[in-house]
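## Example pair
The file below holds two records. Each record gives the amino-acid sequence first, followed by its structure token line.
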Amino acid sequence: MKKIALVLAMLLPLVAAAQTKVKETAVPRSVILALEKTYDSYKVRTWYQAPGQYIAEVVIDGQDGRAYFTASGDWQYTAFPIRFEECPTLMTAFFTDNYPGYRVKSIDYIEEMNGDNYYRMMIIKKGIAERDYELIFDTRGKLMKSNAPDPAAVKRDYYTHTNPDATDAEVSKATKTETNRQASRPKPRTDEPMVVQFAPNEAAVADFEKSIGSKRCKTGPEWINRNDEYAVAYFTDKQKVEKEAVYDIHTGTPIMIGKVLPRDRYNNGIMKYLAEKFNGEKYKVEKMVVYEYNSKYRGADGKKPKPYTYVVVSQKVKGSREPKFIRMEFDSKGQFTNLLAQPLDEKDVQ
């Protein structure tokens, strides 16, 4: 994740900054264009102006959020309020186990242009005139940064106040027992994609053999359970082109075919977009896949969805041997449409 300390410094003032409701006609054209470029489909409920910022109260894919822009028209980030029960298990367990006597004031899922998506939880000690604290978690629920009190001190303070007659020895024993109990407890499940090889739907196998044929593959098919909706057959055709056949995991109905593009066939419009967005930063396109829907497949609106392109970009992280991966989707015209927080499945770039 990008420098969390800077993110914290940026976010906290925004909460307290004075925000004035303004009409869209008062919003600079550069800000309007930035919003249009950031999201393909959206609805603005209200515009606000704060010192050096414009804030759009928006609805994106049916979800309320707030998109923040600089006065010059640069998108900073978008915050989507979410419920506690919607958060990763690792994240909710951390709060529950370590902050007795505190309550969650708010939780936002933050999206940034470069893919640095994360959760921001604001907590406050129960009582009058208590201050807010901020905890930052990655997309899997692992704590990345916090300015909240040390959990050991919190638990000791909580036990002391709920057991005012307890001796120091009893407090020490109780908090130690609680620590040991948590240490022996099974680790919470992290919200990682649950992907394993499996026996695919017979209808999917039959369709694959009929439309593609394993005998016509140079390698594969290797079947992967992508999620609760899709089963994917990864294979390489006789021309050594890597492909992905996606099926409905329950019915075996063919959904789409993905074709991994060689570097000399990368979409020029997408490459230009990346060059502009990363603006001099070093990055590498790891994967570009064009997905085309099956001729018989129809979406919820009864129409055949248009092709789209899935792109994985990597960047080196200072102080880490492992790069970070940014996952994006583009429409059939090469226009940016979406950021993805996690890999599609175990065959994706990790």
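Second record, same layout:
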Amino acid sequence: MKKIKYLFFILAISSCNQYLGKIEPDYIPKNDVIEIFSNYKDDDNNYSEVDFDDIIFPKLSNSSLNINNIEIDKIININKNSVIDFTNDKIILANDKSLHLIDYNNQDNFEFDLNLDKDENALHIFQYDNIIYILTNKSRILFLESQKVTEAAKFDFFTNTIPILFNNKLIIFSVFGEIYEINLDNYSIEKKDNFNPNPGITMKANIYEDNTNLYYLFNTGTLLTFNKNNSDYYINYILEDLNILTSLGIFRELLDAPFSYNENLYFIDRSGKISVFNPTTSEIFWEINLNSTILYYLFSSNGHLAILTLDKILILSENGKVINSYVHNNESPQLIFSANNSINLISEEGIHTININNKTEDHFYKNKFAINLEIYFQNQNIYLKDDKSLFKLSE
């Protein structure tokens, strides 16, 4: 098997004339995996207590939340194409053809017409130089000024993924694999490069970084790498290297962009595969196949990885060992978040507060949620957005 992987590796290198990194003449990829953890077994009962006070990934997590008794309030009805952002004191929501500014405290709702075309919708809201901008799927940039939404620039390509805001530059990706850079000071545009998208599902993913790179997930099967110092795109075969070296099978449906911890990248595949891979040494620190669909994850500063599957919450240590678990028995789990050292599981029926160490469900807050749930943290408030409504969680 190693000979076959080595042959594939040589073929891949020979076909790529822009491979980054030095390859020694006698280099052979090593599949340095902790084999004992390569497959999860349900009868693993070596459980220990875990602490989830300090969640660092996903990026939108907040470690200072202190909510004991949750109240769920619906703020506004929305649709599945709505997008959201936050200022210090307001919620910014593009809903249908309108832009809403909703005050945190008194819930005042100021509404502005976006003047969108029939087949145009807001794709992303961002802020630069204290100005609120809206990017549409037709690569049109709008901004809010003097109680009016004005067009700043209009370009001639379609986009359906979240852009990268890098200093005063906005990096946008066309649906055909073109990379454009827009200068937000003068709205000039430059085509930077092209890439070949792999098959995959378009999704809203985080943008993570390590010491040198930014990692961007164009779709579940296409990972792009950018230089974090100058935002230049370059061909980098990190995912391809992982797929050559892994013993778990191909990673083709990533749940999120890989995040960095202790110089390793964490790759999480929806199919249940997790691999912790060092992109510099091309070595796998550990990997595991949970043999169950992964829906969501949390990662703490002490290296604990919480995984939500269709029927369990699993806690993995920094070394990849399953150290705790909880069977949740919910038919429609969507995501988890941490508060007061408890794991809160959100399903279509409501919010379940779980003490994973005691194996108990301490509270259940009933509320109907639709699909495609997203979570946002702002100050001491938590916001949930599904395809129909925006909710606020508070004490």
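Notes on the second record: The mean pLDDT is 88. The chain is about 5% helix and 45% strand.
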